[in-house]
């Protein structure tokens, strides 16, 4: 059976050059980067070179503004919880959106449980906040604004530059969860006035259980993990040198030109799906909108009258891997909080929508196969009903 992977927003396969880099590093470099002898210096050189390359990829001012973590969740938790605890004497109010990843929302919920106040900005049916709402929400006691760069379920892309300009004029710091966006769009932390930024390597064909937290030089927060003085005392724990080398290779592969090519390719996939389903007479609507500004690797579609679980099962039986939303909540029976925020809790879209997310290995032939199988499954289901 032909198998097609269309769940790249959940995770991506490691690129062959990444695997090669990690294998060579694991074979030849085993030292602890904190050791001062030859083997430690070997590891330290790889750590420093990788940090430099990654710092340049987001236009960080200094290499040491990059702190390697176990991934997006740790980066989000550190940025949000440690900022709140470190700045609580200045204020106990935070601002975020209703469609953030669970790593952000649950960090916020934890802070609420210990006495902080959080304002959750609503979004429109395109999955975007109102800048007026943001300005109204920020108060003198607001210490952090956390708004994702791009949404993992519908691909909406927030006006990060405008948000950064607004937050810079306040007492708050600006954090963005860029897990879905990093490696697909250019990010400039200086131009966009970003103070904290979270990423995850496995979203751009790198290794799992690794990411980084960008912390601008003005941000002074302690390590979330308590232990040694690794990462310039910013994150305790011995660095995973092979994985960090692999992450740097993945970032190197996704240079600015490659990002543009990927975005163009994925945008064409979206249009191909829409035109193909329209030609087949399938009743559907795109959740959000298709624009050249959004994250192009994600498309979320409402298949009217078709239950998502049945569609996913039948697609899987025909070799197509897709999802109904975030993989981090895939085992939950709760409806998508993103679609709920966009369309309301009573909308049929919540139980009748699927997410397809593209990767570097997908082809237009894969998309044709998806359209063919979706058409067969949906029409067969309607005949039964």
Automatic annotation (TrEMBL):
Residues 4-370 form the Aminotransferase class V domain. InterPro entries: Aminotrans_V_dom, Cysteine_dSase, PyrdxlP-dep_Trfase, PyrdxlP-dep_Trfase_major, PyrdxlP-dep_Trfase_small. It catalyses: (sulfur carrier)-H + L-cysteine = (sulfur carrier)-SH + L-alanine. This is Cysteine desulfurase selenocysteine lyase. The keyword Lyase applies. It comes from Liquorilactobacillus mali KCTC 3596 = DSM 20444. One of its GO terms (molecular function) is iron-sulfur cluster binding. Its cofactor is pyridoxal 5'-phosphate. Pfam families: Aminotran_5. Keywords: Iron, Iron-sulfur, Lyase, Metal-binding, Pyridoxal phosphate, Transferase. It comes from the Bacteria.
């Amino acid at each position: 059976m032909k198998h097609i992977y269309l769940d790249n927003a959940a995770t991506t396969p490691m690129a062959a050059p990444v695997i090669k880099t990690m294998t060579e590093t694991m074979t030849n470099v085993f030292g602890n980067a904190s050791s001062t002898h030859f083997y430690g210096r070997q590891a330290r050189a790889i750590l420093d070179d990788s940090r430099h390359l990654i710092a340049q990829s987001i236009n960080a001012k200094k290499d040491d503004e990059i702190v390697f973590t176990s991934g997006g969740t740790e980066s989000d938790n550190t940025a949000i919880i440690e900022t709140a605890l470190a700045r609580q004497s200045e204020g106990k109010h935070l601002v975020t959106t209703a469609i953030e990843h669970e790593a952000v929302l649950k960090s916020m919920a934890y802070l609420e449980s210990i006495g902080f106040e959080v304002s959750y900005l609503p979004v429109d049916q395109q999955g975007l906040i109102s800048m007026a709402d943001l300005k109204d929400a920020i108060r003198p006691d607001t210490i952090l604004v956390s708004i994702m760069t791009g949404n993992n379920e519908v691909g909406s892309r927030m006006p990060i530059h405008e948000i950064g300009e607004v937050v810079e004029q306040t007492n708050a710091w600006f954090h963005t969860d860029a897990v879905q966006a990093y490696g697909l769009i250019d990010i400039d932390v200086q131009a966009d006035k970003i103070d904290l930024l979270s990423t995850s390597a496995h979203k751009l064909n790198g290794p799992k259980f690794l990411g980084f937290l960008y912390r601008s030089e003005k941000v002074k927060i302690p390590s979330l993990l308590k232990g040694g003085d690794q990462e310039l005392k910013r994150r305790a724990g011995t660095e995973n040198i092979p994985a960090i080398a692999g992450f740097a290779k993945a970032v190197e592969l996704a240079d600015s030109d490659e990002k543009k090519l990927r975005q163009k390719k994925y945008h064409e996939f979206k249009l191909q799906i829409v035109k193909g389903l329209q030609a087949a007479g399938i009743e559907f609507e795109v959740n959000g909108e298709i624009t050249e500004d959004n994250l192009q690797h994600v498309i979320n579609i409402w298949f009217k009258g078709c239950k998502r679980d049945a569609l996913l099962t039948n697609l899987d039986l025909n070799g197509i891997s897709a999802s109904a939303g975030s993989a981090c909540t895939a085992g939950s029976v709760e409806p998508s909080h993103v679609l709920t925020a966009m369309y309301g809790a009573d909308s049929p879209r919540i139980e009748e929508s699927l997410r397809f997310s593209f990767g570097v290995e997908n082809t237009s032939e894969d998309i044709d196969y998806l359209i063919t199988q979706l058409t067969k499954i949906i029409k067969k289901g309607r005949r039964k009903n």
